[in-house]
Amino acid sequence: MTVRIGVIGTGAIGQEHIQRLSKKLVGSQVVAINDINETAAKTAVNRIGIDAQFYANAHDLIKASDVDAIVVTSWGPTHEEFVLASIAAGKPVFCEKPLAVTAAGCKKIVDAEIKHGKRLVQVGFMRPFDSTYRQLKSALDNDEIGQPLLLNCKHFNPEVGDSYTTDMAIVDTLIHELDVLRWLLDDDYTSARVIYPRKTSKASSHLMDPQIVILETKKGIVINTEIFVNCQYGYDIQCEVVGETGIASLPEPTQVPFRKGGNLQRAILVDWKKRFIDAYDVELQAFINNIVTGNFTEGASAWDGYAAAVAADACVKAQQTGNVEAIVMPATPSFYKK
Amino acid sequence: MTVRIGVIGTGAIGQEHIQRLSKKLVGSQVVAINDINETAAKTAVNRIGIDAQFYANAHDLIKASDVDAIVVTSWGPTHEEFVLASIAAGKPVFCEKPLAVTAAGCKKIVDAEIKHGKRLVQVGFMRPFDSTYRQLKSALDNDEIGQPLLLNCKHFNPEVGDSYTTDMAIVDTLIHELDVLRWLLDDDYTSARVIYPRKTSKASSHLMDPQIVILETKKGIVINTEIFVNCQYGYDIQCEVVGETGIASLPEPTQVPFRKGGNLQRAILVDWKKRFIDAYDVELQAFINNIVTGNFTEGASAWDGYAAAVAADACVKAQQTGNVEAIVMPATPSFYKK
Amino acid sequence: MTVRIGVIGTGAIGQEHIQRLSKKLVGSQVVAINDINETAAKTAVNRIGIDAQFYANAHDLIKASDVDAIVVTSWGPTHEEFVLASIAAGKPVFCEKPLAVTAAGCKKIVDAEIKHGKRLVQVGFMRPFDSTYRQLKSALDNDEIGQPLLLNCKHFNPEVGDSYTTDMAIVDTLIHELDVLRWLLDDDYTSARVIYPRKTSKASSHLMDPQIVILETKKGIVINTEIFVNCQYGYDIQCEVVGETGIASLPEPTQVPFRKGGNLQRAILVDWKKRFIDAYDVELQAFINNIVTGNFTEGASAWDGYAAAVAADACVKAQQTGNVEAIVMPATPSFYKK
Amino acid sequence: MTVRIGVIGTGAIGQEHIQRLSKKLVGSQVVAINDINETAAKTAVNRIGIDAQFYANAHDLIKASDVDAIVVTSWGPTHEEFVLASIAAGKPVFCEKPLAVTAAGCKKIVDAEIKHGKRLVQVGFMRPFDSTYRQLKSALDNDEIGQPLLLNCKHFNPEVGDSYTTDMAIVDTLIHELDVLRWLLDDDYTSARVIYPRKTSKASSHLMDPQIVILETKKGIVINTEIFVNCQYGYDIQCEVVGETGIASLPEPTQVPFRKGGNLQRAILVDWKKRFIDAYDVELQAFINNIVTGNFTEGASAWDGYAAAVAADACVKAQQTGNVEAIVMPATPSFYKK
């Protein structure tokens, strides 16, 4: 069985996903595309070397009889509309983050999916598909360090442009930790607070950088996350879990160890695109497998997308108030239990 | 285009390759199988869930009109015959190591392929497809440490059974280094000598273990390789290259770093199957891609298989004589130049 | 010149210092001892093999004409009295931590010393004499990572007895970080808050463990320190400094790297006594050198002891209130500027 | 008791030892000096700030009634004469390496010392006093990896001057491994061979660099040692011991780990003087303690100096012949058993 896919939005990430779904993964074929720029879209699929029907209107693509499933990689504010339309059409849909730009929008999707009665939505959070995070989760699940008590995470970028604003540290950057840590710990957040350390001289005048976000969870775990988007030295994702009997850490990406120039050294990635590139393959393959088996057991659900949005809202509020802000999430509906 | 593949030999490695070619890789389908045990063969493909024609005779499979390419995973001594038959049939063939059990047999295949006029043969040496060896080769090719001068390698297994004999340290174990180091250094061996250190008390009485094999190359590089197949602690593959300006080493497989029980530690693999499991996927995908593009640019050629056999013969002789034994390889024919 | 020393308090640490001052360091001699247990004191010096006069009254020892300098290693609550008496006698005094059990007591010593007009007091904070902390400080002072912005520290013990109470995490444990981080950063604290993560099941019912103490400094640096005194796995002191252009960390104590039993591993200390044992030698030698040169340039001053006490008071308050508690330290008097 | 020492030879290493013996170590005092350059010698001791009698003739210094022990740091070819004279005077003598420039010279000293009937000679091999080698030896002695089977060692220098010749790789460089590995393994060498890998372009035309020396021992251990004196990247001393159940390695010198400039890195020493500087202190303190206790239990004996010379002779011969050269050492006399 080959899953016939329609892709909405053929920008950079859209094109990468088309490439994956056409050339690298098993069981999928891109048969339809939509974009606001028809010429660019057609050029892109030609370059990739596939034959896909162009739709000027995304809703026509969603409804097309030869399209089995939808991939939404358009501009963020359009996600909600297209995901809801896909659910209405009863078709599986993979939506790049964010699922919706507001928690309310995410909730609307959750409600629609529950009403539909069967899971259809996978959200594009790729970190749980990354092999190093999976190794770390296995360590926790195998009780290698006892119950987790506290975490120390880093999300460091070498630098950002002037358009990057203080709240983007949450909604664009921390959002990945907000997703992956729920999955890692099988837990939900209860509060967030933000502390601003001494500001780096490398950041724009309008940007607080670095920032520390401290989250607490239902199990009482405290998560200390540092966001530092002008750290200069590299793209560095760290996650250390302190448990009752030991510490487990996210493995570093594999690099050649050198002895040269007076140093024992190995490279830290600078380009973020390389860090999780393999995870995107696994993530999209999981989407196809979910469709083929008829069972959405892998990947972030609409509920996960909603949970990330609720947590992000509280973190942004905490950025502004300086207070401990509550994160109020209802219990996971049985519909979404794994 | 889907490459239709016939697999000769459906033992453990054969079944793994059938699984890969059917379920994991892009562009291939297993349509035919042969084995000396018909029942076991049929059971295996049923379990994998594919529909493949059973051939009682391997030569019928090779000639079958719906078989585009052959994968040989039968008993070693049969390889030569089936590879030669595949060449005679003008069909691409992937042959697990060894290409033939003698250097003369390998040479016969080389001659047949050259006579055929187009490359058809890929030998199942998987290490050049391993991502850590590729990172190391990139480092050398990017001149990170200048010209390589000497290497230190380890091929350690936790333990072997009583049937493992001293010469198997060369033909079963070192054979992988003999292949991958030629590729890594883009060089050929000129001599080998073997030194037996103090013997471990963990080895059978008939087995010399560990052994040190010292190879020299045309470029003058000296390679010190330790084979230790009862090292107890793990399956450990190491490769360190000392260059004119620095040292580069094979990265360790990714593992979670722990602090626990009075140690800062991370696991060393014990099961060899896990070490290069991803490399098998890349290797077989390269075989399919070679067929699709009509150009055997990737993977070990028949010439590489021949070179490994010639070097192994010299190493075995060196085991017996204690002398420096010459390794005489003609220059690579242009037919095999990459 | 040999400095003749009188030691007040000949318990465990007192005996170790007597041993050092008599047998290991250059330029000192223990000539007088005092303890509440005369027999034990005399036995101790006999065992060490020195000839020292026993004084039943510490004040007599302080005033003795053949005693050039005092070392106070008696019970904490007595420190203030003996240090003040030493200053009154115009004699250099090395006092184990705490300088006094209250900040007010420390302040009294500061005032007395300033009034005396010349520095006489060194407080027994040994970490700034530890070679790994010194390497880290050199890295910062050499501008290897730009201005420090935030720190992550750990003070982990394998386990503590039932008598260890929640406030001891500050006054007995964190007190070392409170001293060494001021020195490392050349900065003063402005606030403290305490967060209690999920409690380990390994701690006594009355003990909050682990604890997170977050300090802020005049320069705006945020310090995240984890205290975990039942971490099970070892005695682990960590200090990571995130600067504007990189991260520098406290080196791990030197240990043999092993490959054994399926792990790549090296030991983490379990016994805290071994971690800073060399630092004690350097610290006491500095005391002797300070006396010989007549210039107290090295080691913690009475002011440093006072600063640690003020910070500890705020941390204990923060443990109780859950609030951000201000740490109010006057500017360092020029008398104590280094 | 203070040991009064006379130092013969006040060049660089002589001055360093005078400094140590006068200012840093316990129980010694330099009271006499001799050098071929009187002015320089006097200037040196003035700078160090001690009052020592200058002797124009070394033999007068050796015989001086207020000199308890001799330290020989003069030009290598003079060592034998001064050590023999010290033995004749019945005085303890510390002699920098080499003990004598020929094995025969070393043997003469051994014979004289045995005839004297009591150990007096300590040779200046400092590596057994280095804390990292001691940690490695402890690991072996504690049976952490079972019986040692083979070793891989490196002695790398960043660069050498034009006056450095191929044989100096043995007599100046490898000599330290020849000493420390006998001590580490409690074993004696039986043979040596030398292999010359591809030569680095960074070496003088007359120098073979790098070189591999392969030693075998009475226990059958094979030692692979690489000497590379123009390795460019640092002063790097490595020692890896493969045992029956695991591998133990010499710890790296402690350095701050950094994340900076796209690398995870820590420094490798470039200046060899820093690598074993602490070991010199321990070594000389052991000499003083040996004298005080009247029992030469620590440090390299004249026999050890002789053994290193015999092994070095065989290695130099192996450099020239390309053959496996026997190293013939008589059993250690009971006089020298530890």
From TrEMBL, chains A, B, C, D:
What's in the keyword line of the UniProt record? NAD, Oxidoreductase
The Gfo/Idh/MocA-like oxidoreductase C-terminal domain extends over 137-323
Recorded hits in InterPro entries, A to Z, give: Gfo-Idh-MocA_inositol_DH, Gfo/Idh/MocA-like_OxRdtase_C, Gfo/Idh/MocA-like_OxRdtase_N, MI/DCI_dehydrogenase, NAD(P)-bd_dom_sf
Q: Does the keyword Secreted apply?
A: no
Enzyme's top EC category: oxidoreductase
EC numbers listed for it are 1.1.1.18
Domain named Gfo/Idh/MocA-like oxidoreductase N-terminal is located at: 3-125
Catalysis: reaction(s): myo-inositol + NAD(+) = scyllo-inosose + NADH + H(+)
A Pfam family that this protein carries is GFO_IDH_MocA_C
Q: Record's PANTHER family?
A: INOSITOL 2-DEHYDROGENASE, PTHR43593
| Family affiliation | Belongs to the Gfo/Idh/MocA family.
Summary of subunit composition and partner proteins: Homotetramer.
Q: What is the annotated role of this protein in its UniProt record?
A: Involved in the oxidation of myo-inositol (MI) to 2-keto-myo-inositol (2KMI or 2-inosose).
Q: What is this protein called?
A: Inositol 2-dehydrogenase
Write down the species: Orbus sasakiae
